Amino acid sequence: MAKVGTMALDGGDPRLGGHEGEFAGQGIIAYTRPQMRALHDPSIQFEEYWYYSRQTRAEEDAFRAEDAAHASHGILSTIFPTKSGTGNVVTNGEKGEALVPQTNISDPTRRASVTDEEWTNASRAVRTATAGAVFYLITTDILGPFGLPYAFATTGWGPGVALYTVFGFMAGFSGWLLWHIFMGLDSYQYPVKSYGDLAFRLYGQPCRYAFNLLQSIQLLCSVALIIISNGEALSEAVKFKLCYAVCCLVWALAGFFMGQIRTLQKFGWLANAAVWINLLIIFITMGVAAHSSPLYSASASSAGYAVNPNLVTPDSNGNYPPLQHSAGLPDPSNFGASVNGLMQAVYAYGGAMIFVEFMSEMRYPRDFIKGMWGAQLFIYVCYMLYGLFMYAYQAQYLQTPSYLGIAPYAWQTVGNVLAMVSALIAAALYGNIGVKVLYNNIAVEFFRAPPLTQTKAKWIWVAIIPIYWSIAFVVGAAIPDFSGFTAVVSAACILQFTYTFPPFLHLAYNIRKNALRPDEGYDPSTGNIVLHDTGMKRLLRGFMAGDWYLNVWNVIYCLGSLATCGLGLWAAIENLILIYAVPQLNAYGCTSPLDVSS
Length: 598
Hints:
This protein is mainly α. The chain has helices at residues 46-66, 68-73, 76-79, 116-124, 131-141, 148-155, 157-185, 195-203, 205-237, 244-258, 264-290, 303-307, 335-346, 355-360, 368-394, 409-447, 455-478, 482-515, 535-544, 548-579, and strands at residues 90-91, 94-95, 521-523, 528-530. A two-stranded antiparallel sheet has the order 1-2.
């Protein structure tokens, strides 16, 4: 296990001294069978993960070559993902249906009776998602295109296009880094189930805890934000005739049912629908914006007001300033407003936070890269065109979300209703991953809960989902202007998972991988790990061997990302200070924050 301390590679195999992990003192040699190891055993080193990952990748490639149905779908499997799959389970060495162990393999005392085939089948059985499902899951997961026009209105034509392009490409590059690490650390014997598992295998247990905590906070906040924002949208759609607290509670209750979908493959069709709904909202908003004026009455919440109130303040006769476009920053003196606007664009690439969870449920993780780049290209082209179009027609009067900035109330309501459905699907996805992170890292590890493939676990899932959504509702409802608070959390979490952590993890992975010589590695017959040198010498060789330029770039990229995250935090906190200078409403009352007449 490559912890922070062992990055210097200054030790041999810690298991050679005797019995390790949960089975110490039981007379069982821990390295003989992977299923006899603790779920997160710190004594397992990189070389063992690497050995089993190559076996798994070779097996997956063999399965894929035999999977005629998968190969024949081609592009259609991406556009119309199948509803479900059986995973790569095997029986008597041949691919097909197989029983996974029905004993609770989370309990170390019961894993001794599990055969090697049953152990690997338990891992294979949950891997059913396809590249097509991943394409739609990624494009559903992102925060949507409806904040991007606002971003262009606060940054201008040039900076907006340049920054959105750079961040889009780097988000794809980060996805490639995560995929590369996953392919070298995941296996049927030691499956990677979450982002935190990568951190654990490269930097140790404290790093895993930190990653899981940040990811859990962000996912819970994302679900809470959608509950509150959908509540606001519903209150506006019914013209504030329904109590605001009830409007929010409706979506929490809807999550009780939507959250019962457990596998990501089954989410494929819902994600498919969400993408087409978003495209429909885009086309409607563009059409209406091209044939009507902006919603001048809401100028106090527009991008122009955030940049410089004079840009949207009417004169003494009640006439609003004409549309104003900017090649550069609209107001260089208000840099914070531009950074806040830019964050709206950057968050559209926030899906990397759950890329690892997507890969962990894929039948062929090698296909992830195809689905990921396809999704990133779709996000970039469609959303860029939409943002530029809306900026051209509404300029400084753009709202976030953009469909609320069109003047005809009927079309605002159409956008609201469609967006509520799409957002609920996205919230269900966030909740799905959030519950799995908590279940696998708390319930399974500390309370020996059964894996989610077993019947008992399915009933536990049914019970956990309402609890998770209830907590999200309570948290979101209790904090006034929750969207402002979430901006701070997003800057601290989403940007890290997309831009800072991937190069940070890949640097450690590349050093360990490149330092391996042909006659070094893990010997499964003895459990020994053969290394001919240790310490700083090995660390430097791993850094400079092979694609050393990628290691250099990872260092620069990680530091640059940290600086960007710092800027985002500063801008979000400054904005929050301004917001809370005025008393804010929470979602425990009946008055909607959008009801200006109250």
